[in-house]
Amino acid sequence: MTKSMQTTEDSIKVFKALADPIRLEIIRYLAQLDHAVSCGEISRVMQISKTSGSYHFKILQEAGLIIVHKVAREKYVTLDRSTFDRYLTHFWQNL
Amino acid sequence: MTKSMQTTEDSIKVFKALADPIRLEIIRYLAQLDHAVSCGEISRVMQISKTSGSYHFKILQEAGLIIVHKVAREKYVTLDRSTFDRYLTHFWQNL
DNA sequence: GATATAGTTCAAATAATTTTGAACCATTTA
DNA sequence: TAAATGGTTCAAAATTATTTGAACTATATC
After folding, report:
1. Which run of H or of E encompasses B26?
2. What is the mean pLDDT for each group of 10 consecutive residues in chain A (95 residues)?
3. Contact across the interface for A24 and B31, Cβ inside 8 Å
């Protein structure tokens, strides 16, 4: 499992994903719970429509900020902390 | 000099400011040089119009990512690393 | 004073992001 | 099988972000 080089586009995706109040709230919620949560539960807590939820989860996933695994009908989501570490915590190292 | 609490809006401003290829390039340029540079020089290096430069510097400044000081006719710019530290390096602590 | 340089501001044009609702697919439960 | 639940997809509408050029302010130089 070698980590491939990050491009500027990857960074942009990550920062764009973080640059939205709903997605930041989702991240806070997941960070505090620290276990997989279904998309439906999160949408209910955030009080957003499922369509909007679906959109935001896609953005977060494509940025690599969340890991998604499907269990039957529903999708469960957790933070991928390695991505946060790479782009945020170790910002200067990877710039 | 007490650091005041950061709001969600502050975070959004920072991440939005980082979520653009030109601004990310400006940040890389400043990080590598590590001394104050004029807006004009940066605009020339980035090959953007001065209007566009002015716009991007405003975004970066309002996010607190750069410190600007005017010397006569021109404006010099440096990175404000404390902001990067607060929002990126120490992301989890301040979430 | 005239001209050049550094940068800002404004409004219009363009481009990108986000929200919305309806229709849809897959899985579960009655 | 029918109905409910969890989620996606699509296109239209609404909102935001970015670029552009012209006009402008302020300082420097001839």
Report:
1. helix B21-33
2. 86 98 98 96 97 98 98 97 98 95
3. no
